[in-house]
Amino acid sequence: MAFPYRKILVLGATSGIGLALSERFIARGIFVIAVGRRKQNLDEFVQKHGSDKTAAIQFDIGKLDAIPAFAEEVIKSHPDLDCVFMNSGMQRGADFSKPESLDMSLLTEEMTVNYLSYLALAKAFLPFLMKKPEQTALIA
Ligand SMILES: NC(=O)c1ccc[n+]([C@@H]2O[C@H](COP(=O)([O-])OP(=O)(O)OC[C@H]3O[C@@H](n4cnc5c(N)ncnc54)[C@H](OP(=O)(O)O)[C@@H]3O)[C@@H](O)[C@H]2O)c1
Which family does the UniProt entry place this protein in (predicted)? Predict the structure, then answer.
């Protein structure tokens, strides 16, 4: 399948699916801006692939108030960005057969990271992506 994008921001590129996808993108000549909280993983990623093929930004997407400034900085540093891939997330077990075990603060954090952050990221990046004359994408 054709994948026409040349520079992609991958949220959650420090492990798992996001890391594997990022390495596939780089192998296809697509520049990857890797995002996650674990600085060591980000540093290792850039060291492995080189700063001509990748860049890294340490950011916690659960900090909703910081998302507009984060997007602004990304756009300023990478005006040729044409794809935003929202893959970051977390999943803890929640046993509703034992409601007393449910921790509302953990569930709230999960909803913030897995859901509200995506809405905030879409709001922050869509005006930039939609204004571009070339094909762009926001993928979740
Ligand atoms: N694996 C599966 O079978 C499966 C199935 C369905 C859905 N999913 C979903 O797909 C996504 C990736 O899964 P995975 O298995 O690859 O998980 P993973 O290995 O735990 O990777 C999660 C990624 O999200 C990032 N992340 C988590 N919280 C973050 C935060 N607050 N700010 C920034 N980045 C954050 C992590 O980076 P840092 O820790 O460095 O911040 C990491 O790069 C998750 O949303 C998961 O729920 C996975």
Answer: Belongs to the short-chain dehydrogenases/reductases (SDR) family.
Mean pLDDT for 8-25 is 98
Kindly state the helix (H) or strand (E) to which residue 137 belongs, with its residue range: strand 137-139
Q: Which long-range contacts (CB under 8 A, 24 or more apart) does 46-51 make?
A: 49/23
Instruction: State which CATH number among 3.40.50.720, 3.30.70.1230, 3.90.1150.10, 2.115.10.20 fits the domain covering 7-93+104-139.
Output: 3.40.50.720
pLDDT of residue 118: 98
Q: Is the pLDDT of residue 27 over 70?
A: yes
What pLDDT was estimated at residue 131? 98
